[in-house]
């Protein structure tokens, strides 16, 4: 089933897509509209595509999947309401979603209270640290992003940096994590600035960073339009220092929004999806990455994104667990999820345990740089 943008919007208003003779209800609350739509829209499209494909192949152990999905618009209060509706009214056996950290934290409280396995698509470390019984996630944590960036800085002899961070949930969380681990890599943060989602010009903050003696590079934890504005202002001010962004903007959309010239040389940790066309033969992720990229781009006629990849991995993890559990009982699915070992996704290879509900290590991140308007690997 082809789902156009218009049809997708209609489906999400209705809140459900039902396959013929659907037997297993899978829920989702995603930010398919609003300021985080660049996250939630490809996530929703990915789930629709994968459900259709799985059902066409016979479903799970002969049972079809019914996807019940709501658009929370990035609003944590709506996300909580939809999570409650998914459990109490729609009677789903598992939930995928939480495009942002804020919406994820609302959903996970419901999932934990109701005993429903939940896989988040957001980045903050507090989602899975401390470990919660029913909560898992697919993206690398913000702490891991800091560690990957600082490793690259360390390799390049950078010891003193400036930091400009978004004040939203993701930016604030990553800023805190970077501050906490910087010293482990011999990095000192000489100056820290922030911006809000409404800010349209970060020139004053960047001017202060530029004038701070000793700064050798700049790090920008954040997602959405803010990092693109930072990147444009950075170029306009002629700051001739390495600029590092977060995995929160790891998409072709960031290059388009920031502008090809301004984005030149920007570095960030990302996933294999961004370098699918140049992955080496024998890379364990290549087959999965190429297959998802080809299917998505054929289905929707638009470039695949890292964020859709998070939904792809969550769906594979959840349906693999359902298959191994041989049951649609939420507790059995949860137990099977926690026993996942060596499942290859677009983001990395997942191995969960009772003490690890992320299942990825730092090697799953790829250090990327924008060159001539394209992503290249610099690992």
Automatic annotation (TrEMBL):
PANTHER family: BLR7848 PROTEIN, LEUCINE-SPECIFIC-BINDING PROTEIN. It holds the Pfam family Peripla_BP_6. It comes from Roseibium alexandrii (strain DSM 17067 / NCIMB 14079 / DFL-11) (Labrenzia alexandrii). InterPro entries: BCAA_transport, Leu-bd, Leu_Ile_Val-bd, Peripla_BP_I. This is ABC-type branched-chain amino acid transport system, periplasmic component. Belongs to the leucine-binding protein family. Residues 24-359 form the Leucine-binding protein domain. CDD domains: PBP1_ABC_RPA1789-like. The keyword Signal applies. Keywords: Amino-acid transport, Signal, Transport. One of its GO terms (biological process) is amino acid transport. Residues 1-22 form the signal peptide.
């Amino acid at each position: 089933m082809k789902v156009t943008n218009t049809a997708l919007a209609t489906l999400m208003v209705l809140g459900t897509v039902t396959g013929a003779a659907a037997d297993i209800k899978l829920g989702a609350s995603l930010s398919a509209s609003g300021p985080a739509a660049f996250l939630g829209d490809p996530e929703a499209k990915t789930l629709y595509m994968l459900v259709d494909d799985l059902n066409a192949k016979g479903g799970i152990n002969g049972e079809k999947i019914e996807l019940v999905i709501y658009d929370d618009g990035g609003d944590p209060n709506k996300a909580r309401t939809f999570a409650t509706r998914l459990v109490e009214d729609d009677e789903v056996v598992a939930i995928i979603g939480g495009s942002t950290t804020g919406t994820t934290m609302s959903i996970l409280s419901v999932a934990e209270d109701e005993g429903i396995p939940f896989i988040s698509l957001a980045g903050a470390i507090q989602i899975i640290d401390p470990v919660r019984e029913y909560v898992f996630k697919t993206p690398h944590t913000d702490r891991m992003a800091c560690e990957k960036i600082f490793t690259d800085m360390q390799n390049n002899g950078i010891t003193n940096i400036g930091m400009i961070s978004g004040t939203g949930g993701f930016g604030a969380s990553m800023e805190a994590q970077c501050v906490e681990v910087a010293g482990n890599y011999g990095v000192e943060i000489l100056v820290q600035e922030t911006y809000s989602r409404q800010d349209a010009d970060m020139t004053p903050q960047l001017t202060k960073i530029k004038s701070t003696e000793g700064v050798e590079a700049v790090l920008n934890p954040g997602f959405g339009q803010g990092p693109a504005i930072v990147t444009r202002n950075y170029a306009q001010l002629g700051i001739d220092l390495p600029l590092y962004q977060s995995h929160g903007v790891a998409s072709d959309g960031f290059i388009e929004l920031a502008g090809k010239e301004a984005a030149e040389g920007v570095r960030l940790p990302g996933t294999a999806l961004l370098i699918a066309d140049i992955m080496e033969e024998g890379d364990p992720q290549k087959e999965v990455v190429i297959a998802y990229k080809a299917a998505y781009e054929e289905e929707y006629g638009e470039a695949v994104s890292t964020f859709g990849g998070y939904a792809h991995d969550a769906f594979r993890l959840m349906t693999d667990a359902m298959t191994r559990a041989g049951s649609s009982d939420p507790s059995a699915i949860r137990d099977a999820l926690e026993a996942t070992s060596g499942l290859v996704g677009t983001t990395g290879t997942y191995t969960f345990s009772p003490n690890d509900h992320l299942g990825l290590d730092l090697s799953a991140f790829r250090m990327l740089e924008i060159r001539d308007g394209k992503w290249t690997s610099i690992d």
